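worker-3 :: picked DeoR/GlpR family DNA-binding transcription regulator
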Amino acid sequence: MQKKERQDIIVDEVRVNRNVSSNYLAEKLKVSEDTIRRDLNELDKKGLIMKVHGGAVSTIQKLYHYNEDVVFNKEGKNIIAIKAVSLIEDGMVVIISGGTTNLMLARQLPKDLKATVYTYSLPIAMQLSEHPSVEVIFIGGKINKKSMVTVGIDVVQSLSEVVADICFIGVSSINIANGLTDEGYEVSLVKRAMITASDKIVVLATSNKLNVRQNYNVCSLNEINTLITELNPNDNKLRNYLLQNVQTI
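worker-3 :: C-alpha cells ->
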C-alpha cells in the first residue's frame, strides 16, 4: 500500500470515529506503529487530523451530534445519501437543508470533492468543516433549538443573495396535491428561499414521508426536479410522482 493511500485511510478513520489509537491503525493497515506515528505527524502538520498521545483525534470538537442509535431508519437514510452524492460535481455551489438524512449526505461526500456548500444546519456545518476540499458557508440566524437550524429573516435574506447549482431539501412530508409541506412555519420560509436560489431542486425523503401533509406549504410538486427515496425508483409507491413528471432515484 502506498503512503498516500494509507494516509487517506487514516484520515477517513479519524473523521468517522473521531478518535483512533496508533495500535488500532497499525493493526488495520498492517504496518508498524512507528510508521503510523510518522503518518500522524505528517497529517497533523497538514491540519487534517490532530495527533495526541497514543493516536489521533478529529481537528474539531463535535459540539453537537445526533445520537445515531436513535436515528429513525438510519439504513434508508444512508441509501438516500449515497444516491444524492451522485448528483454533485466538482465546482458546484450547493445548498443543504437540515435533518438527519442531509447529515448522512454530508458524511458521504467524497473527500476529493471540491465544492461550495451553504447550510443553515449547525450539525451539517460542523460535519463539513472536516472536509478537506469543501468550502463551507454557514448561514447564521436565530437557532431553532429542536432541529439545530437557523431560521428567520436574516437566513432568508442571505439565501436571496445566493446563486446555487443545486439544493438538497430534507422534508417533513410530500404528496401529490400539496407538494412539499413542513411542520414549522419559519423552516418552511427558509426552504422556499432555498428553492428560489437554486437551479435544481432535489428532495430527500424516506418513504414514510410520502403521501403525508403538514401545516405549512413549501412548494408545489412541479417545482421539484428530483425525488430521492430509499425505494427502487420503479416502486409502486412512487408511481404517481412519476406520472407528475418528477424524476425519481
